[in-house]
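User: Teach me something about this protein's shape.
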Amino acid sequence: MNRGDCLLLIQRCNDRESARQIHARVDQYHRAGDGFVCNKLIDMYARCGSAADARAVFDSMSSGTRDGFSWVSMLCAYSRSRQITRARAFFDEEIPPWAKNMAAWNAMLAAYCQAGDLEESWRFFTAAPGWNQISFNALLSAHGHDHIRESKQLFDTGTPSWDLVSWNTMLAALAQAGDLETLQRLFDAMPEWDLISHNAMLLGLTQHGKLNDARRFLDAMPQRNLVSFTTLLRAYSSSQWQSQSQQEEQAMDVELLLGRMPEHNLVSSTAMIGVYARVGDCASAEKIFHSMHQHDTVALNAMLSAYAQTGHIDRANAIFDSMPQHDMVSWNSLLSAYTHNASDLSKARALFQRMPERNLVSWNALLTVSSQHGSLDETKRAFDSMLAWDSISSNAMLLAYVRSGHTDEAATFFRSLPCRDLVSSTNVLAAYAENGELDKTKRLFEEMPEWDSVCLTAMLVAYAHKGYLEHARQLLDGFLRDDVVASVAMLVAYAQHRHLEHSKQVFGSLLVRNLVSWNAMLAGYVINGEMSRAIHFLGSMPESDIISWTTLLAAYAHSGQFYEAVLLFDTIKMVELPDESCFVSVLVACSHAGEVAAGVASFVSMSSDFAIQPSKHHFCCMVDLLARSGHLVEAQDLIASMPFTTSAEESKRLLGSCTSSLNMNDIRSKVSMASSSSVSTPVMDPAFYVLLSNMLSST
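Assistant: First, the predicted structure itself:
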């Protein structure tokens, strides 16, 4: 192998094992005392992080073979291996005075800077016999975004003129620190730019959440590389979308961005997985993941998070179990899967207990799962066990109060918060609105320092709930004209107050119609009793889902149209997979029509044909069906065999059914049974006693 080939192999090597193999192949030049080749071998081992191998080459060189580059390369080998103490000893005790040139001083300074030892960096810098541009750039890079004020002061008072590396170093520090105003001013003042300058400016825009400006800046850049595209991709994957229309718009931007990328690497592919997870496109995320040639922990965590965000908890568990190692992100991602899935709270709790360590993110995930499952006691226990809280913790606790119907406690907790953000204010606002407390809703709304589409929609719903449709419409026209969610809320409000024509006008004004808006308009027809028009409208919809069909089915069931409900249910089974709500409607229809056989068949079919475990609601419907039809013994047996705690609701249904019976002794026995059943219930329903009193007085 000739000398040129040897040097080329050395230059390309970046791992220790390959370095030793290459060393063995070029050893003839090493033994011959070729100083240039030996220096390159030391530099190769320094790149690979093997200071011991570099020292072996250095010690094998004769004093006449070593030059200034040999000493500096050995010093760099120590610093790159993070052996700062050894590097300083080598600098002070071994490097001869003639070799302590500017390159040696800068190499030692760079070692301190890379180790983050700012105090020693400054001490060494001031002790140096002189400085050049490289000295200042090393010191400037050491301060970085963690010490942005010192970095800016050094930049402003440094050498008379900075080179492009200095400008770019300062740009990168400002971008990472999020100081967009200073970043823009510095960028505009630069005498020239290169690709690194543009990428730093692009990073600053994305760090500040200005995705539209970042996209336009990328389009205007004279040249782009993989870093440019990946920077914007990562910003999209972590951005907070405020509305579905904004989400759809940014998803289109991402598709265009992907089409323009010249290539993909591990970082960009991982970012793409995050983007697809954000828009709920798990299939595309999987496609990217399986196309990757390698998966590091970050990529595996990204796919795990994608499964978690899209509710695929079984797949999330599978990828977690397949990972060779787990970090805090892995555990937290799997735990967060339970916040996107209606799984058993006990599973989330068990996973939390298995975690080798926990941070604030872990505790917040447990809080969120508990609050979403409506477990106020569990959420309070977790909240009280935490050593520290942030806004996410407080909002999860607040949401637990709201979802449990404890509006007053939620308001008290809200007022006790040292810092109230938009999320916490909106949670309480929505609770007031849902409870019909318009005055409190208005007062809190007017106290809020800012509004977003969510709280504005909550205020709109509060007005609509009380029948103030004009006030609701003013909010829509003034602030939310292009918001699909608010428009759908207004559409439903008009329908509920029997203003079907106004609902149709709102639907007609929508610039973007998604499935939710189509289903809302369908519900509008149903609410107003326009069943024939509802059926026609369903046929004209560009797409439908189980909610579309269930809307019609529920209308037939509650209006006592048994045969229409059964026929529609048969149709649903041919085009969609029935869900729990479908079976509730069918059982209600059977109950109203007294069709016991059909009801029992549907109840059994749930688990046997569709693998749906009957809920407490389904059992209540069956109790109602049996009791209404006079099958009181069977109703009693069903209540006794229910895999749930018997509540006053089942007792009320049974008692209500007895009013149509002519056997007064039977009434008395059923009253006794229902009364004893309700004694064990933790919450006593006054309606039960009213019904009980009425029945006894009638006997």
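Now, about its shape. DSSP finds 44 helices and no strands in the chain. The longest helix spans residues 244-260. If you'd like, I can walk through any region in more detail.
User: That's plenty for now, thanks!
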